[in-house]
Amino acid sequence: MSSHREAPEISKDPVADNTDVYAFVSPDAPDTVTIIANFIPFQNPFGGPNFYEFGDDVLYQIHISNRGTGQADISYQFRFHAEIRNKKTFLYNTGPITSIKDRTWNRPQYYSVTRVEQGRSRILARNLTAPPVNVGVRSTPNYARLARQAIHTIGTGRKVFAGQRADAFWADLGSIFDLGTLRPFQMAHLIPSAAAMGVNGLQGSNVHTIAIQVPITDLTRDGRRPTKVLDPKSVIGVYASASRQQSRIVNGDGTSVWHGPYKQVSRLGNPLFNEVIVPMAEKDRWNSLPPSADKRFAGFVTKPELAGLLPVLYPGVFPRLAAYKKPRADLAAILLTGIPKDVVDGFQNYTGPVQADMLRLNVAVPPAKSPNPLGLVAGDAAGFPNGRRLIDDVVTVELRAVAGITIPLVDKSFKPDDAAGAIKDGTSNTNGPLLDRFPYLGTPGGGYQSLPGTPAA
Fold first, then answer.
1. What are the percentages of helix, strand and coil residues in the chain, rounded to 5?
2. What's the number of domains the chain is made of?
3. Domain-located, residue 455
4. Total-model pTM
5. What residue ranges in 216-339 does DSSP mark as E strands?
6. Which residues constitute the domain of residue 104?
7. What is the tens place of the pLDDT at every residue in 67-115?
8. Which residues, 6 or more positions from 292, have their beta carbon under 8 angstroms from its beta carbon?
9. For residue 5, is it within any domain?
């Protein structure tokens, strides 16, 4: 969660595992959109001597769909390559790294950025340097400065960053995956337990982040900045993917060479979609398909398994949800088409009838002056499911939605169970403070500073 190890095959390939996608109008640069795609889940900060890095053999992409087809109209491609400076040592660094240009960093990694629009490619940058990982107080004595050096400007109003950050996603993984235990109802569970505080299962974990900030005009279908929320052109769809070449040959020296066309092995739009909606037998297929093919998965959205499990796991707690037999049109709108106008007063992020799992961002909605982690359902139209910010409590929002709190948006006759509005994840981001500027994610935990399960930014 939100898409950490969410499918059988991608769980074996963490370097290509897309864990989270965020898309929001930048709070400190409101004429731009920031899109963040995280990869490589559950990183232990002290995971040396071969520390985490992007895959040189993986094609990472951030996609924009702005014409209502569920297909990528604009893609930003990221390709990486690492070098070994001193082939006679096992060390990641041979001394303190005080600059991303230091020769003491023995395995630097570089990348290119390519923009593809309607089949036309344009390389925006080559040989950009990613920062090293946060090894510790001696090896990376001022990590925040190293990370700032790795923020690159690639044209007017455009920034990019690729490197290790603290995982900003939070969830009580141990509780949720223990037969759907939800706080504060664990005492009402079919197998009850005593009340207890929530535990963030991502505590102390790092990820590898690709973040890009571009003008809104780079992403809209007509190259303009919309100002009216109800204008259909104000909405973009966003998702990310990772692809590998079709075949792999292992050489006699243990190295590998990949051949053939690229095939998608991971993708992500809305948080938790493949995690808890798509059945296990379909998860790998889902990862291989574009969002425009998601009609085949729509039945799992309109009749979600979790909505059927809640009344069973919590007898007597969700009687109205148990009695509701109509297809879940509310979830279909939130996850597959966007919310049409006249459902939420003065708001829409509808991309059309094509069913596709993407984050949908209405770029005419300005950043909130006082953001609410519960986003749109709490009256904050700048938050999830209008895009996704780093502060958005997506687990709580989606659990409440599945439990029926959003059904009245499309069916006024339904009254949610009282418990639906009380469900909460019960945890928070424990991996250090977020930044107030690009790339916004916090400083990753350092290897020397960390203890197992304890974050150290």
1. 20, 25, 55
2. 1
3. no
4. 0.96
5. 235-250, 256-268
6. 10-421
7. 999 999 999 999 999 999 999 999 999 999 999 999 999 999 999 999 9
8. 69, 70, 71, 354, 356
9. no
